[in-house]
Amino acid sequence: MLGDGTGGAGFDPGRDDSVSERETGVPDTPASRQLAGQCFCGGVHYTVADEFRYAMNCHCSNCRRATGSAFKPIAGIEHHKLAVTKGSECLLIVGDATGHDAHCKTCGSFLYSVVRGGEYVHIAMGSLVDAPAIRPSAHIFVGSKAPWFTITDDLPQYEKHVTA
User: Where are its TM segments located (predicted)?
Assistant: First the structure.
């Protein structure tokens, strides 16, 4: 196939075979940007596609205990779009393959949770080195939020999960 990037007959590395936004009216979609993340001590590093499906501030008691804070800002994405690139042997996994929290066993940093039967991960947004395109859009589980914390922004608040 010509211009398929395989170096076959007719391949021109300088030629752009993509169809532009001007021609289709649809915005160009470049290859996904990869974000870096890591724990506090630098023992665990990961990359994740900047293709998050949702981002929220979770106030459930489990997230508060796991992070030691008033809430956990999370960004959800398909599990296969996360790769631990350094220090997988330093991960402390609490749970099983279908649902667990991942911490650095050296410094204790909370990195991500595997959820939805292992299909998705909730990245702890505070562990990202690079800024994601998405921002939290709601507060969830405010029915169990810390009584000493007051939500002061205008994001929607849900007693439990976001409802459709």
Answer: none
